[in-house]
Structures are given as structure tokens and as C-alpha cells.
Amino acid sequence: MIAASHPRPASHRRLLVVDEHGVVASHDPGWLVSWLRPGDVVVANDAATLPASLAGTHAPTGEPIEVRLAGRTSLSADATDVFLAVVFGAGDYRTPTERRLPPPDLCAGDRLVLGPLAATVIRVAAHPRLVELHFPHAPDDVWAGVARHGRPIQYAHVPDPLAIWDTWTSIAAVPAAFEPPSAGFVLDWSILKSIRAGGARFATLTHAAGISSTGDDGLDALLPFDEPYDIPARTAALVAAAREHGARVVAIGTTVVRALEHAVTADGHVRAGTGLATNRIGADTDLRVVDAIVSGMHEPGTSHFALLRAFQDDEVLTSMAAAALAGGYFGHEFGDVTLIARRSPT
Length: 346
What we know:
Layout: E1 2-3, E2 15-18, E3 24-27, H1 31-35, E4 41-45, E5 48-49, E6 53-58, E7 63-71, E8 82-88, E9 111-114, E10 117-124, E11 130-134, H2 139-149, E12 175-177, H3 189-197, E13 201-207, H4 217-220, E14 227-231, H5 233-244, E15 249-252, H6 254-263, E16 273-277, E17 292-296, H7 303-308, H8 314-326, E18 330-331, E19 337-341
Parallel strand pairs: 1-18, 2-19, 4-13, 4-15, 5-12, 15-17
Antiparallel strand pairs: 2-3, 6-7, 6-9, 7-8, 8-11, 9-10, 10-11, 13-14, 14-16, 17-19
């Protein structure tokens, strides 16, 4: 699949649809509105993207590094003392991640100088490039340092440097995501207006979308990391109403699926409030809340693609991937999108 090389407006993206019977068809993004029924609820992630790539120096060796912030346990603005991070050696996004140099050997206690910020390695986690970092600064100073020194996490398929607003969806609100909740790029204000005009409802939640790829198979196997979320009471109520009346819940993006399915209680209701999504969703997952997903185009073998297996079986997803390839669909964060309905039980 060809990776989209630059941001594109919603109207320039194509939609590949997989219905509940596994039939694959191509449409424009506006088709989503006609597919929705009155009472359906569309839920999107309103997290704005942080400039989470921090260039710096490994103080013990003096070697250059790039730190990509990748996780924290809370969405609270004051929760800035500990971040999960992936560390690269010298270089930048212009080199594909799979060819990036490794960082110097990282050990607990190592000091990293990241522009105006300093951080200490608390521990090396489940991979030599995955660390927990402690920032000793006050929360306001951490955010100011990230804003001044950081830049958006970017990959080599996008050749020109991204501005931070290139990574924000039209509904971006709380700065919480480490990479864009990119399925949301398919939404613009005309589509949102049409959703409401047709009798469906639109709601949001905030989920700290993490990084999508590290270029290392062993590290990528650990994705997705634990990610905090916040589900407003209004969103939980709309989901409950849809389920009570036999309407559908449509998630815009994998992060929305992960949050809603993590927050569902034993009695089938989605709990409003904050949480930490520790769940992994895949072929063995019995979806209890979400009936369909709008997702970016992702290759088989990625964590995003694995989540789609909860909606349709591998044969259908293979057909979808083949149709995307044959049709010249663009992949990755600025690419085209797919709407996948949960397979019919009959």
C-alpha cells in the first residue's frame, strides 16, 4: 500500500467499506452519512496531538538521541513526572524507523538532556529502547518545554516537516495524544452537520493515542501500550441510549474502540469517567459496545490491523487489503479510510 505523503482534507480521502456480510465496496467519505440510521451514535477521539518528539543528548556518553514520548498513566495536566518513551539514536524522521540507529545503552539513572528539559531513566522496560522517564520539573515547565522544543512524531513517508496543526483533527481539543488519532481526519464540519441532520448523534471521548510504529519488530509487538482515556457522561449516555433502542455505535478510530470496550461494565453499560486502557483487542475479542469502526488503512501484522480482526474474519480482511492495494488506496495517518461493520452472526 502506498503511504500518503502529506496531509489531505477530508473531501480528498476515499472510503473502503466492509459491510456486516463481508462485502467490500468503494465510496466517498460522505457515504458514511447516508449509511447511518437515526439513533446511531458516532464517537470520535478529540485528543489534540502533542509535539512528542524530543531531540537531545544522552548525558553519560554525549551521544545524540531522539526521545519519542509514548505513554503516561493519566490525562491529568499535572501528571508529567513519568512518561513511557521510545528512544532512537542519532538521526531524525527522514530515515525510516527500521533503519534508525539504536541509542547508546540505556540504564536506570541515566540523565537525558532534551532541550530545556532534563529527564532521568527510571528503568528500562520490556525492550532496550523502551524506558520510563522521570521529569523533575513542575508540570507547567514540562509542558512549556515540550511545546518549545518538541516537534510532531513523524515518519519518512512524509518528506516535509509537519507543523503541529497538521496533526490535529477538526475536533481536536485536549492535548493528550502522542500521535494523531488519525481516523478523525475523515471528519469535517460539513460531515458532522450532516450526521446530526440525518438523526444520528455525534459524541467524543479523549484517549491518549500512542505511537503506531517503532521500526523494531520486537518493540512493535508490545504495541499498543497502556493508554489513559476520559469518557464524558454525555457520551456514555448516548451510547447507552443507542444500545437500548437497537441503534449502532460507530467508533472513529481504534482508540475509541479500545476506550469504550475497556470501560464497559459487567451489565453492559459504558462507565463515564477516566480509565487506563490495558486491553488488547483482536480476533478473540467479543465486542460488547462497538458495532462498526472507521479506521485508517493499515498493513496486516500491525497492532491497528490486529484490532480490525475483532470486526471481521481474516478472509474478509485479506479481501479488503487486496481491494485497497488494487484500488490505489493510500495508507498511514494521512491516507484513506475504511468502514468495517461487525460481522453478522448469521
